[in-house]
Structure formats: C-alpha cells, structure tokens
Task: inverse folding
C-alpha cells in the first residue's frame, strides 16, 4: 500500500481546488441561495481585504474603495431610477393626451403644456386654447356635434388599442418577465430565490417603454408597482459592476432592498414611505446598514425626480394636495366606515382576481395573451370614454378627487350654490348647498366606481406591466369623495343635529370631501396590499399634512382588520402562492404539532437517502449518482454502514469540481477515488490519482434531531434562510428536509394542494 501523495510527486496537483475555480459558489436558475454560506463568504472576503490593507498604500486605497462602493451603487440607483421615473411621467402625460388631440405648435407637448405656451389662453377657458386641437377639429374641422363626438370616440379607442397591442407585443417578443407588477417576484427574489433574467437589462428597457404605453392606453392599472421592478433592475445592473455584489447573492439582495425603496420614493414622491415600504412589504433580510443605504437611495431618487419636475408643479406627484380645515372627532365614524369598505373591497378583489388568474393559467385563455389584452383594452376604452371620470388618466382622476374646492376650481365636483354676500378668504369657503353639477358628478362617480371595481379584476395579471396602487386608490377615492359630499350636505342641511351642533356652525367650513377621498384611497390600498405603517407615511407625504395621520391610521388599521378576517394573504402573497414560488412568509404562523421525522425524506417505504462516502467512491460513482438523481446536494457520510455525518456537498459544485479536475489535473479518470478527508486514503500500487474535494464540502451543515418540533424547524428556515436541513440522531444521518418539503407540509396542514409548490 502506498500513499497517493507519493505518486509522481503529484501531491500539490491533488489540492488544486484550494484555489477557487470559475462558477463555484454560484446557483442555477429557479434555485434558492444559501444565506449562511453567502454571509460566511462575505465575512472571509472582508477579513482578507482588512488584512491586506495594512500591507501597502495601494491595498489601503482599495479597501476604502470597497467600503465606499455600497454608497456609490446607491447614488447611481437613485440617479437612474429618478431619471427613468421623470421620463415615464412626461411620456405618459403626452401620450394620454394624444388619444384626444394634438398640439399644433409642437406635437410633443401635452394639452397642459400646449396651453401654457399659448398667449390666447384665458383663465376661464384655461383648458381650451387654439393651439390644442381635438382630432375632430383637425380632421373634419368640427369641435361639436354628433359626428365630431363619434370621430373622437373612434380615434380614442384606436389609439388605446394601438398602445396596448404594441406593449403586449414588445413584452411577448423581447422580455416576457416585464409583465405584471413585479412586486411578488421581487419579494421572492429578496427571500433568496434565483430568477435569471427577471432583473436583466432587456427587462429594464422593455418594462420602461411598455409601462408608458399601457398607462397611456387608459387601462385600469398604474405605474407605481412596476416602478419598483424598474428600480430593482437598475439595482441589479449597478451591483453587477462591483465584484463585492456581483459575486455574492446575499449582498446583492441588500442592494435590491434599497432599490425597492428608491422605486416607491419616485412613484409616490415619498422617500421615507419608500424605505418603510421596503422594510414592511418586500424585504426578507433588512440589516441596519441597508436601512441607511435605502434612505440615501430614496433621497437621491426623489431629488433627481424633483430636478426634472415632470408635473410642472414643483411636486413629485400629480395629486399633491393641502387642506386648510381640521378634522373633528365625529368624523372618525365615516372614516372607519371607509376602512370597512376598503377591507371588503380588498377581499373581493383578491378572491376574484386570483380566481380569474387561476382560470387563465389552467385553461386555453392563457394561450392567447395578445387577444386578451386587446379585448380588455377595447372594453375599457368603449365604456370609459362617455364618462369624464373614467376617460381621463387615473392619476388625474385621483388628483381631482383629492382636491379641496377653492374659489378658482372649475370642476363639476365644485359646482356649489354660492352665497352672493360671501366675503370670506379664498381658502376658507363655508359649506354650501350642492348644485346640479355636484349631483351629476355623484352619479357619474358611482358608475365609474362600479366600472373600476369590475375592470381592475380582469386587468391586473395580464401579460403587460400592471400596477395596482393607483386603481386601488382610485376606487377608494371615488367612494370617499361621495361619502364626503354626503357628510358635507348632511352637516349643512342639519347643522342643528347633536353630532354637528358642537363643531359645525352655519357659515363654517366644516367638512372637506377631499380628505374623505384621501382616507378612502388609503383604506382600499391597505385592504388589497395589507400595508399599514408604510401606507400611512406614504399618504401623509402625498398631502404634506401631519394632522391627518389619525384618520389615515384609523382607516388603514380598520381595512386590515376587516380584510384579515376573511384571509391573511395580501394580493402579492396570493400571487406568490398562485405561481408556486418557494416563499416562506414571516407573517405566517405554524401552530401544528408535527415533528421533523414526519416531514423528512426518505419516508417509510421510500428508497434510502442518496449519500456520498468520505473516501470510498470513484469519480464514476459520483457522476452516476448525479446523473440518476436531480437533488441539489448530497450528504457526505463516513461509510454507508455507519452513516455518521461528515458534511454536505452541493450538486452544482460537484459537477464543476469534477469537470475542472479532468481539465486541469493529469491522471484523474473515471476510477479515480474521490475523497473528502484532509489526508488521502491508502490505495493499492498503480492506482489512478485520487481526487480531493474537501474544499467544496460544507463541514457545518445545519442539523436537527428527528424529534425537533416542525414549528422550530419552520422558524429556523425562515430566520436563517436555509435551503436544506439534515436530520440526525446521535450523529447518525436519518434524512433531509428541504425548503420545498417545509412549504409542502405547510400547504398540507392548511388543506391546500402540496404540489402547488413548483420550484426548488
């Protein structure tokens, strides 16, 4: 017997894996990362940089650059996300108006910009100017009459269909991942799942372009959710430029968490709300360092958008409002009622939308995404055009519903009967009786509300970029505005009632209907997404008023309570489960009394666990095991008789290691012995070179005993982000529990289909 290290002096060659080789430590598509290993690798990298920084000035400078690279990435994300959001806002404004007419002086001007530049615009007719012409005026020189209306109606539908068809075609051909909101997938990616291409450059480009098209088409969707996806694509692009992030999937996810905050910051003009949204809603691992960097990225993004000033009002959003009237305690009751409405709407929407999306996935409907988009767009345009509240863009609708009625407002919602003797300041107009315009607006809003509720169910989830924030807010704002007008008129006509007597005197400005619209918007958005803290902060950043936090909190909490009574899942969690993503939600509770032995594989009657031995298998044996199974990794034991656990080897790294060994090390053949020990085994003379694979062996795999409660195992998987956990008894290997096994078991315990978990 001779030691293999003595053969031809090849001892050094056997240890070639002590140096890293290409692709080691990377993951395959649709697999989960190992958070513990990524954390350990980053610690080792940081320790190496720190020790080298003492050797020379150049190494010290490199360590400083490494430390600052995180802030540089945040700066770049903020700049690009803010720029893209500004460009999207400007393009949407122009293309939305393009459906109704064109500016003669410069066709790239929107209606509002066109009339700004006109010297013939009067204040009373500020929406009409000679430079802006509707299509009927331009084509047949008629602005009024049936023929002009029909022509404008027809061209409105044609433009909408053109935009929608172009959007769905671009998504289908160039970037299938650019469809949807993106937030369910972002949540899954941040939890450690790999979806290659979802945050790629093509997805970024196509999502940005098609987002403009679909919002301009008039479909019942928003751009706010997809902007989070766009910002995360920016984060992924810039993190790939720095090896600190590109080679470590755990560190990359810290960047993506901050990018999500920047996305919400530019979507709503709410930097603090964006940070809280990332923390509350999308992030899985959110250390304090990520909180600071998220804040910086959100700040830079908001500053960039403010510099572009896409709405021309020095604000970051179209529907910024300021109210001048305080709210009163008696108004909490209608605010809470709006919260109940928001919770019920959220439940209705989630159940109906998930049922429709499941039908789309399981029937022939899913085979015709282009036809579905065209049909929904046609129905939306045909029904939306006759109603002025559905014809305009949803952001403009929300802006009008939020607005307080001042003396200069020309909206139908502000058509009150004025007292000719009124001599009050402009911003303190007393409550007045509703005029005919208000009553017309009320029934138009009621029809628009029903239409929005129904059409949004079918629109969200189609193969185009589609956000849910704005349609949900629109539903709540319409309901809230109608309730607000109702309370206002009740207070005006019955100011002697006991509930109004103390705070609403005749001639006073008591009720602000716009505030009710804002509270309703918050309630409906909360009912659908189940956000609470971040939602309230986003809404008060929108309004610039701190005194309305209590109504917003009351509505948000009520809507969450009501919606949670019918089901704990928000819309994003529901879509994660529908798509079968391996997402362990921190909010879910596991209360069943099962043990690790009930869940581990192999079960009774199944084939024994596939394992590697530490020094008795050949290269051919390992390759055969890999070929015949599809497991992501294999436990390594002393021998198949003792089954004493040594460690765990990943499938991908085994394949790469053997491939590299065959290329770089002479003498490695199919019957070479593979060993995972520090010293090579004793082999007969003239044996082929053994192959040492100790470097790729995880010597400290996470283990539990067979009597560990599953409640503890689920908690371990959640908090440590494990891929798999080995089950032992007295050091002897019994089985393995993977993340997929945990998700299947949880689904089974909840009386759901365990096979709905599709990915690893």
Result:
């Amino acid at each position: 017997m001779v030691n293999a290290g003595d053969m031809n002096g090849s001892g050094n060659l056997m240890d070639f894996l002590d140096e890293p080789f290409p692709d080691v430590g990377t993951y395959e598509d649709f697999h989960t990362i190992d958070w513990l290993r990524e954390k350990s690798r980053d610690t080792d990298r940081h320790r190496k940089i720190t020790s080298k920084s003492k050797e020379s000035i150049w190494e010290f400078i490199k360590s400083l650059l490494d430390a600052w690279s995180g802030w540089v990435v945040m700066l770049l994300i903020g700049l690009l996300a803010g720029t893209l959001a500004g460009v999207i806002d400007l393009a949407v404004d122009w293309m939305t108006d393009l459906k109704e007419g064109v500016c003669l002086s410069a066709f790239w001007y929107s209606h509002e910009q066109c009339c700004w530049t006109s010297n013939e615009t009067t204040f009373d007719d500020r929406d009409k100017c000679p430079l802006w012409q509707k299509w009927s005026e331009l084509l047949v020189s008629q602005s009024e009459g049936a023929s002009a209306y029909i022509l404008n109606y027809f061209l409105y539908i044609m433009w909408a269909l053109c935009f929608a068809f172009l959007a769905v075609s671009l998504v289908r051909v160039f970037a299938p991942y650019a469809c949807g909101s993106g937030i369910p997938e972002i949540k899954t990616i941040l939890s450690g799942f790999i979806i290659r291409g979802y945050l790629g450059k093509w997805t970024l480009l196509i999502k940005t372009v098609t987002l403009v098209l679909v919002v301009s088409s008039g479909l019942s969707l928003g751009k706010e959710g997809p902007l989070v996806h766009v910002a995360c694509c920016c984060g992924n692009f810039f993190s790939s430029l720095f090896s600190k992030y590109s080679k470590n999937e755990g560190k990359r996810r810290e960047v993506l968490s901050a990018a999500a905050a920047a996305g919400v910051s530019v979507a709503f003009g709410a930097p603090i709300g964006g940070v809280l949204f990332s923390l509350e809603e999308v992030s899985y691992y959110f250390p304090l360092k990520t909180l600071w960097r998220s804040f910086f990225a959100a700040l830079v993004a908001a500053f960039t958008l403010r510099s572009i000033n896409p709405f021309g009002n020095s604000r970051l959003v179209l529907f910024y409002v300021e109210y001048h009237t305080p709210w009163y305690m008696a108004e909490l009751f209608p605010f809470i009622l709006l919260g109940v409405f928001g919770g019920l709407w959220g439940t209705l929407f989630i159940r109906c939308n998930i049922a429709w999306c499941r039908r789309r996935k399981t029937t022939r409907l899913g085979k015709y995404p282009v036809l579905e988009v065209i049909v929904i767009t046609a129905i939306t345009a045909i029904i939306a055009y006759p109603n002025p509240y559905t014809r305009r863009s949803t952001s403009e609708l929300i802006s009008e519903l939020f607005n307080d009625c001042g003396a200069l407002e020309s909206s139908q919602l502000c058509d009150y009967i004025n007292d000719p003797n009124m001599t009050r300041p402009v911003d303190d107009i007393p409550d007045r009786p509703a005029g005919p315009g208000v009553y017309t607006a009320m029934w138009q809003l009621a029809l628009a509300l029903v239409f929005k509720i129904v059409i949004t169910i079918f629109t969200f989830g189609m193969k185009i970029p589609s956000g849910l924030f704005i349609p949900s807010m629109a539903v709540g704002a319409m309901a809230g505005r109608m309730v607000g007008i109702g309370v206002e008129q009740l207070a005006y006509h019955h100011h002697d009632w006991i509930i109004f007597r103390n705070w609403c005197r005749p001639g006073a400005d008591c009720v602000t209907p716009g505030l009710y619209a804002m509270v309703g918007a918050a309630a409906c958005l909360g009912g659908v997404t189940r956000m609470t803290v971040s939602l309230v902060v986003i809404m008060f950043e929108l309004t610039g008023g701190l005194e309305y936090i209590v109504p917003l909190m009351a509505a948000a909490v009520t809507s969450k309570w009501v919606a949670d009574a019918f089901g704990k899942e928000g819309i994003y969690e529901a879509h994660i489960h529908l798509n079968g993503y391996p997402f362990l939600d921190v909010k879910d509770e596991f209360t069943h009394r099962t043990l690790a032995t009930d869940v581990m594989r192999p079960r009774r009657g199944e084939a024994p666990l596939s394992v590697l031995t530490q020094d008795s298998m050949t290269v051919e044996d390992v390759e055969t095991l890999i070929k015949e199974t599809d497991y992501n990794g294999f436990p390594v034991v002393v021998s198949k008789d003792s089954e004493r656990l040594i460690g765990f080897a990943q499938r991908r790294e085994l394949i790469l290691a053997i491939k590299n060994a065959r290329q770089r090390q002479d003498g490695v053949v199919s019957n070479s012995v593979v060993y995972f020990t520090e010293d090579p085994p004793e082999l007969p003379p003239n044996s082929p070179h053994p192959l040492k694979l100790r470097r790729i062996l995880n010597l400290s795999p996470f283990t539990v005993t067979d009597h560990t409660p599953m409640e503890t195992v689920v908690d371990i998987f959640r908090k440590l982000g494990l891929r798999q956990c080995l089950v032992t008894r007295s050091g002897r290997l019994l089985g393995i529990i993977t993340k997929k096994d945990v998700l299947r078991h949880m689904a089974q315990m909840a009386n759901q289909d365990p096979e709905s978990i599709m990915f690893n």
Q: What stands out?
A: The CA atoms of residues 65 and 72 lie 9 Å apart. DSSP finds 29 helices and 14 strands in the chain. The first strand starts at residue 2 and ends at 3. Residues 1-19, 423-427 have pLDDT under 50 and may be disordered.
